[in-house]
């Protein structure tokens, strides 16, 4: 699969999604710095940025591909997004999820009538089973390794520049790289001077390892379960990220927890661990407080109630 997403694809995705999604809020976060803003994808439909890519991908399918049924693997947010998008388009969907997936995310999938299959002790095992089942003829929608998914995520970059044209730096959570590949492609096309920094959890360092040539291990017990997993071999997100990112930084579990508390107590938003990593990087100095006008993408808000109570 080639690296083939461009700003034109993202503009087309924006046009395609306009009838279904509203731009998400961009909110000042002055306690993180006078020029810091939060791009609140937790306020999106299904409470995650994932709806952008899944909906763009499934709306792009022809009738034959939809009729085959949709199959996807996800640790949560992509699952809910695919389920909603398939329901909207009148397609059946089968969603594979790790057995440890939070109940809130499993219930979100079932709400839209998709079949859920809990399989695999971690995301990598679940994805492998999903790819195996997709060979039977169903239409596979990857959470990140898909040009249509990446283009849908890239609409976030267009929205940030439209509302905050003076933006100098954007922080983006990173798992498989679909979100940041799309956002970075849009930002660098609109203004190559905008700094784009990916934020990995230390427990889920796949893109950090790729970018820095390191071999930090994966740890499956993490607050940032949405970012866990290795990157599919040959994923188109890797060359995009190598070309477009300025850096990838790491934050710890304790730092993610502190960011989740900050978002509840100061900003008034419930945010899942994977969605809070950009704020963690700002709170803990992984990204310097140098006065740059900064937007941090808050990627999702689907956190298990027990986890939230424990963190608070």
What does this 3D model show about the protein?
- With 312 residues, the protein is α/β, with parallel strands linked by helices.
- It is 44% helix and 14% strand.
- The chain contains 13 helices and ten strands.
- Strand 3, helix 4 and strand 4 form a beta-alpha-beta unit.
- The longest helix has 17 residues.
- The protein is globular.
- The model has no long low-confidence stretch (mean pLDDT 95).
How would you describe this structure in keywords?
312 residues, alpha/beta, six-stranded mixed sheet, 14% strand, globular
List the helices and strands and how they pair.
Layout (H helix, E strand, L loop, with lengths): L6 H11 L8 E3 L7 E5 L9 H11 L2 H5 L2 E4 L3 H13 L3 E5 L5 H9 L3 E4 L4 H12 L4 E2 L6 H17 L5 E5 L4 H13 L4 E7 L4 H7 L24 H8 L2 E5 L1 H15 L9 H8 L9 E5 L6 H7 L1
Parallel strand pairs: 2-10, 3-4, 3-6, 4-5, 7-8, 7-10, 8-9
Antiparallel strand pairs: 1-2
Helix pairs in contact: 1-7, 2-4, 2-7, 4-5, 7-8, 8-10, 11-12
pLDDT < 50 stretches: none
Order of helix and strand elements from N to C terminus: HEEHHEHEHEHEHEHEHHEHHEH
Number of helices: 13
Shape category: globular
Helix % is 40-55%
Residue-averaged pLDDT, rounded?
95
Q: How many strands appear in the DSSP assignment?
A: 10
Strand content: 5-15%
Distance between the first and last residues' Cα? 43 Å
Q: For the CA atoms, what is the radius of gyration? A: 18 Å
Secondary structural class: alpha/beta
Strand order of the largest sheet: 1-2-10-7-8-9
């Amino acid at each position: 699969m080639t690296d083939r997403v461009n700003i034109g694809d993202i503009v087309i995705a924006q046009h395609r999604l306009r009838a279904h999604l509203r731009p998400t809020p961009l909110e000042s976060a002055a306690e993180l710095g006078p020029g810091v803003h939060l791009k609140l994808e937790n306020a999106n439909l299904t409470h995650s940025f994932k709806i952008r890519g899944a909906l763009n991908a499934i709306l792009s399918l022809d009738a034959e591909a939809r009729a085959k049924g949709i199959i996807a693997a996800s640790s949560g947010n992509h699952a809910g997004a695919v389920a909603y998008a398939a329901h909207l388009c009148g397609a059946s969907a089968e969603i594979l999820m790790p057995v440890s997936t939070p109940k809130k995310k499993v219930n979100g999938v079932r709400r839209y009538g998709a079949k859920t299959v809990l399989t695999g002790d971690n995301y990598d095992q679940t994805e492998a089973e999903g790819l195996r089942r997709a060979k039977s003829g169903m239409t596979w929608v990857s959470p990140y390794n898909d040009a249509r998914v990446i283009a849908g995520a890239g609409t976030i970059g267009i929205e940030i520049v439209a509302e905050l044209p003076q933006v100098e730096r954007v922080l983006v959570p990173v798992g498989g790289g679909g979100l940041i590949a799309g956002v970075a492609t849009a930002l660098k096309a609109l203004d190559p001077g905008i700094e784009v920094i990916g934020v990995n959890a230390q427990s889920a360092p796949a893109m950090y390892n790729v970018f820095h040539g390191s071999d930090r291990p994966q740890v499956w017990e993490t607050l940032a379960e949405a970012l866990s997993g290795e990157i599919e071999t040959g994923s188109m997100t890797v060359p995009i990220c190598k070309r477009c990112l300025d850096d990838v930084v790491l934050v710890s579990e304790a730092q993610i927890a502190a960011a989740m508390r900050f978002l509840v107590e100061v900003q008034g938003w419930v945010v899942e661990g994977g969605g809070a990593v950009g704020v963690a990087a700002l709170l803990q100095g992984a990204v310097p407080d140098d006065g740059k006008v900064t937007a941090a993408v808050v990627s999702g808000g689907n956190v298990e109630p027990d986890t939230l109570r424990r963190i608070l």
